[in-house]
Amino acid sequence: MDVPSFARWGDAADAVALPDGVRELLGLREPAPPVARPALPPVRLPADVLDALAAACADVATGDAARLAHAAGRSTEDLLRLRRGEADGAPDAVLRPADHAEVAAVLRVATVHRVAVVPFGGGTSVVGGLRPVAGGFAGTVALDMGRMCGLVDIDHVSRTATLQAGLRGPRAEELLGDAGLTLGHFPQSFQFASLGGYAATRSSGQASAGNGRFDDLVLGLRAATPTGDLDLGRAPRSAAGPDLRQLLLGSEGAFGVVTELTLRVRPRPDAHSYVGWSFPSFEVGSAALRALAQDGPLPTVLRLSDETETAVGAATGAGAATGCLAIVGLEGPADDVAARAAGVERLLRAHGGTPLGGEPGAAWLDGRYRAPYLRDALLDAGALAETLETATFWSRLPGTYRAVREALVTALGAGALVLCHISHVYAAGASLYFTVVAPQADDPVDQWRTAKAAASDAIVASGATISHHHGVGTDHRPWLATEIGPVGTAMLRAVKNAVDPAGILNPGVLIP
Amino acid sequence: MDVPSFARWGDAADAVALPDGVRELLGLREPAPPVARPALPPVRLPADVLDALAAACADVATGDAARLAHAAGRSTEDLLRLRRGEADGAPDAVLRPADHAEVAAVLRVATVHRVAVVPFGGGTSVVGGLRPVAGGFAGTVALDMGRMCGLVDIDHVSRTATLQAGLRGPRAEELLGDAGLTLGHFPQSFQFASLGGYAATRSSGQASAGNGRFDDLVLGLRAATPTGDLDLGRAPRSAAGPDLRQLLLGSEGAFGVVTELTLRVRPRPDAHSYVGWSFPSFEVGSAALRALAQDGPLPTVLRLSDETETAVGAATGAGAATGCLAIVGLEGPADDVAARAAGVERLLRAHGGTPLGGEPGAAWLDGRYRAPYLRDALLDAGALAETLETATFWSRLPGTYRAVREALVTALGAGALVLCHISHVYAAGASLYFTVVAPQADDPVDQWRTAKAAASDAIVASGATISHHHGVGTDHRPWLATEIGPVGTAMLRAVKNAVDPAGILNPGVLIP
């Protein structure tokens, strides 16, 4: 299907075809309707405000292409709406600041003129993080951080690097790689998401078991707020009051615009080992992952698909396991990888695992960033496809798994495929990542919203968190209110009012 | 000297004598003046308010002994003031709540009647954390958490335990030990400090290299605030907005009273190895510690004394090293300890270390909680003795070390002993812990305040944090303002006003 880039994931050149048999598996009868030409709302901002913004930041675009490219994130709902011509989230203008001072200047002008400002990194939010509430504002601008993409400093002694927030994953790895270093942060959105976005949403990469989450990597940060700058992080850890870095991490552009990050870096690994393991059941495999997370040695990457995900993978050629497929990746110095591999193998065998060799590992590595492209192909074919995720303590995990699966199957019907894997582990718990594929109903947006609400209710009722690594955005706000309660909500509101009294920063996200 | 317990550290039975030679080393001529009988201010709270408080919490004491025992923390300034009869920080009453509901009820009554509430755990603050600003309030009460000392639950699958916040270290270890578990958190205040205090001040234990800081152990918490309860922590880690747990950790009783904590626990180690190492200089030793922190294997305990601390230790019989003494402790399963010990030895030898065997390790273990008792003996003998600490990135550490040393020596004169050790390490940086001993001037409180201010200025000017693990209290507030800036300060104030609009919670601490 000829879907323009503003309504698809990533680079058109990397689009994938639907694997054989998927149409039949899902009983898909007809492809999605053709894509409508989106009707952009007229630019609302008056000329004098645009002039004031241009005085703060020279790079201002108000053309259709720029506005459309910043009209939404990349959730399935975002894509479905764009496909049917709904681009009402498009900003009036796109500003591309050159440096921290321009960001700060834009926030001052926007405060005076009541312009909503949506910080925009890679544009890959899947929780409605780029869908601002425009009511009550003179207009909306996207603050595209793409020009702020430099390496500021490397501190080899402390193994830290200071990088601008607009840098995207591959370029950051390139800059650090020249110095023999890596961040080691590889979320599925790696090719497009920005460092600032990672920080603002508490991203978690596929190598989180070994390298930590992105919030673990953040040692210092600089942010511009409407009321002034924040420069935080004088030590890796401190007892100088609450850790305010942790208040900016996960703030989704509602408290400030992160412009610079000081991050933990590590030497580029010189050895890699990615292998597959098979477990007789999700329960047995989960216990094996738990043992690794609690007693070590901890792999760099550790994932376990449930029976359905394993079977679908096998049926579409992406795996050969029966039971449940686990991927175990180790990276580091060669002797360390060898020693850990031996320890991992001993423990996984003792927990009922059967090694499958390097082929499943290589297949996983090859396809690690491909799922969002596959989603486009599924949408083209008339399927609904989306993911959601959560995390909780190990003892609650089976209950959360069952409750969410049941909620999705009930909402979407027996024809839906509900796949799940554990993608991130901790000593005390783990995340669950669900993928849902079903034939589209007449209104697939409504179809998904109903299913997602049921799943979110199940997550919260089971005691799990509404998001392990996607964030809150607009989609998860109602459930965040339950999760943090009225006092937690009051804390977030108070911080928001203190740093952004006019409420211009990404209005409508995060805060219940 | 016969100093009553309210003006000394810990248990009188554990008091220590001054080692031989210390008087001469310091040129101490005469002992401290005799201790004055403290004049307690009259109870300010009117009878109807006391009645209302008693209705909220049955256990209320207004006797002199209870008030004196809660009159101050355990900084040298606190002790010096108590020794000279100043007990103006004494609360009007001491309340000992039985459960969370009583804590919440006390906060409601205190809000209505404008009573300042000072949450009191072990009473071991060394930064003026128990020295409330009483002006503008009807009176002050200490909320002693000592009765809330139960084990609520152990989750063996998730390796977590839920414990009441008034539990002290030894009892918590006893309760967990019955189940084969340990927290592994051993700060110098271990024998007296409470779990709630650890959380409220971001405590860091001597085994932090291997077991993490206390804030690393906190997975969930329950707190009472004047505006309602907070129940946080549905997963080890989450992307559901900013991590609000991190806002309560380090909040020093100013945002709420932590009543219950869900903590990471681990199996009790079945093997221990504590050995000493000698390094030719602090610089060489620091580089060796850095290598362990960055490349592993990481010991459980890792400390390095500078040349002066090592020499003083040797002169007073607590060590035998020339150069700089390091203590390397390993705990865990026997095979793991053996494997790590071999890796540690290889790396430390390669970095210029010489092993000293188990004797220095045993001596350190034996004396690990004794330093505060030694301080009492020094105060008795007419010496000023106090500690301060900071942390920063490895690349800044030598500059911070030099600047703080110089500031202290300049302020206290050449006769002062300024000792330092690295007590906590991270991949990106480490802490510095200074001990200062000098002959007392005519006004030792003023003498120390001047020296401490100079050291604090040097810490902040060198880019380090004003506290790595003691907290902010009242003593560090001016420097916290520089560290987090006006926007950070506004954030703290906003949260405070949101959860405690009457400002009754530990007024005067933390917030600049």
Automatic annotation (TrEMBL), chains A, B:
What's one Pfam family here?
A: FAD-oxidase_C
Q: Which residues bind substrate?
A: 375
Which cofactors are required for activity? FAD
Task: State the Gene Ontology terms under molecular function.
Answer: alkylglycerone-phosphate synthase activity; FAD binding
The active site lies at 433
Which residues bind FAD per the record?
Answer: 119-125, 201-204, 252-258
Q: Which GO terms describe its biological process?
A: lipid biosynthetic process
The protein's UniProt keywords, in alphabetical order, are:
FAD, Flavoprotein
Asked if Flavoprotein is a keyword of the record, the answer is yes
| Keyword field contains Flavoprotein | yes
Output this protein's name.
Alkyldihydroxyacetonephosphate synthase
Q: What is the lineage of its organism?
A: Bacteria, Bacillati, Actinomycetota, Actinomycetes, Micromonosporales
